[in-house]
Amino acid sequence: MSQDLLPVTRIPRTGLPAHAVVVGDPARAAAVAALLDGADEVSYHREYRVFSGGWKGVPVTVASHGVGGPGAILLFQELADAGVGTILRFGTAGAMKPGIGDGDLVIAEAAVRDDGVTRQLLPPEYPAVSAPEAVLALQRAARETGAPHHRGIVWTRAAFRPGLLPLFSYAGAGLAAIEMELSALLITASLRGLVAGGVLVIDGANADELVDDEGTSVYDPHREVVAAGVERGAVVSLEALRLLAEA
User: Fold this and answer.
1) Concatenated DSSP letters of 149-204
2) Predicted TM-score of the model (pTM)
C-alpha cells in the first residue's frame, strides 16, 4: 500500500537493513548489489534504486541517489526515516592535489559545504564531518584489500563544470578531491544522529579544469583504471560496513 512507502523515494518505511552504501548511478547500485548474497531489488523510482542483501553475514542496503546534493539529500533523509542508521557514500571524484592518481580511493574526513542545499538547513559555519569510526573502518578496509588510498577533506560543489562566475580556489588548502553529494550526507547524519562517511574513486583531475577554452570536455571517467578503482571501492565500502556493524 502507498502509505507504507516513503513519498519521494518510494522505499518501504520499515524492513530495510540498517547499514547502507549509497552511490550516484542506479547502474552502479545494481553492480554493488551483485556482490551481495541474496540481493533483492526493493524499489526503483526516479533516480532512487534500492537493493537489500547480505555481505559476509551482515544485512546491507544499497541505494542510488542521482547527481547533486538537493536530490541526494532526499534519499538520505528517507533512509533515516526508514530506520537506516549507518550510511557510507561510495562515489567518484576529481583529484585536487598531486600524488592522488586515477583509480585511487579518497576517504573523506570532512567536506566543504558548497553543495547547494545544506545552507538552507544549517548555517554555513556548521561543519560537515565524517564519523571517526567510519573513517577508520574505511581506512582499515582499504588497507586489508590492498586498495591505494588517501585521507583528507573533500570539496562538495553543486556545479560540476565551471561557469562565468569566479570561484574561490581551494588549491592551497590541501583538499584531496572534489565531488557533488557528500556534504549533504554528512549534514543529514549530524541532524539525524547517523554514522556516515564516504570513500571516493578518483576519475580525473580537478573538476574546474575539465572544460577547455573551446568548451570541449576532456573528462573521461570510463577508462579501465577508473573501472578497476570502482571495483576496489565497492568492496572497501562493503567491508567497512561489515566492520562498523560488527563493532
Assistant:
1) EEEEEEEEES-SS--SS-----GGGT--EEESSHHHHHHHHHHHT-EEEEEEEE-S
2) 0.93
